[in-house]
Amino acid sequence: MADDRPSILIVEDDLSVVQGLVRGLHKAGFSTSVAMDGEEGMARILREPFHLVLLDLMLPGRGGLEVLELVSTRTSVPIVVLTAQTDLPARLRSFAHGAIDFVSKPFFMEELVARIRARLALTAPAPTRRVALADVVLDLDARRALRGDTDLGLTTHEFNILAFLRERAGRTVTRTQLAEHALPEDGSRSDRTVDSHLSRIRKKLGEAASPCIKTVWGIGYTCDLGPA
Fold first, then answer.
1. C-alpha span between 212 and 195 (Å, rounded)
2. How many Å apart are CA 138 and CA 143, to the nearest integer?
């Protein structure tokens, strides 16, 4: 079973701190991985898709600031500095090198978890709005109709019409409604134009999806999603 918990990489050489972080983060619903030095931490940040990194500054070998400077231009993963250093220069250098937050040791686990959740909420991508039509997916944000990874190549007007029908699935939509909602005012909005667009849409949808668009003779069209 896939682990869908947000993943946190802990780059820290103090085993007692690592153990406390792992316990606290697991209790809060995160998955964790650990790197005990800067070299390993840098390699894993660049190689693996973590949601967030907790990075100590005082690490054996390659120091935390060097790691931060090297990875910040090569990955967008948010990095929180977690260190015993409390001086202002260390804070300023951390932010200058790309850290999104700075937490001093010792720290309260509850506050660290709250900071992590707040940072993940800020950096999380907006959910993609997608709806299905048989074996076709309509990406409403990218305005594309996809079968698997294949773009079906709908024009702007064709996508407008199909999305409007899909939004009103199960209801009959007149040709006039389709024209007013999906076609530009300065273009043709005739019944023939609407029918021509629907004919091309059906061809592009293919055998599985095209039957979902049904003609209601004398009125317009309906989108039939079939049994729930």
1. 16
2. 7
The residues that bridge with 192 in the sheet, in sequence order, are none
pLDDT at 48: 86
In terms of Cα–Cα distance, which of 193, 168, 167 is closest to 179?
Answer: 193
Task: Give the containing element (helix H, strand E) for 64.
Answer: helix 64-72
CB 173 within 8 A of CB 164: yes
For the chain, which domains are there? 7-123 (3.40.50.2300), 153-223 (1.10.10.10)
**Helix pair angle (156-167, 191-209), 10° resolution:** 70
**How does DSSP assign 89-131, residue by residue?**
HHHHHHHHTT-SEEEESS--HHHHHHHHHHHHHHHSPPPP-EE
The encoded tokens of residue 221 equal 């069209």
Count the neighbouring beta carbons within 10 Å of the beta carbon of residue 117.
15
Cβ-contact 8, 117 below 8 angstroms = no
For the segment 130-176, what is each residue's pLDDT rounded down to a tens digit?
889 989 999 888 888 999 889 999 988 999 999 999 989 999 999 99
Q: How far apart are CA 228 and CA 226, in angstroms?
A: 6
Contact residues for 129 (Cβ-Cβ < 8 A; gap 6+): 139, 140, 141
Q: What is the pLDDT of residues 14-63, one digit of tens each?
A: 999 999 999 999 999 999 999 999 999 999 988 888 899 999 999 988 88
Map residue 82 onto helix, strand or coil: strand
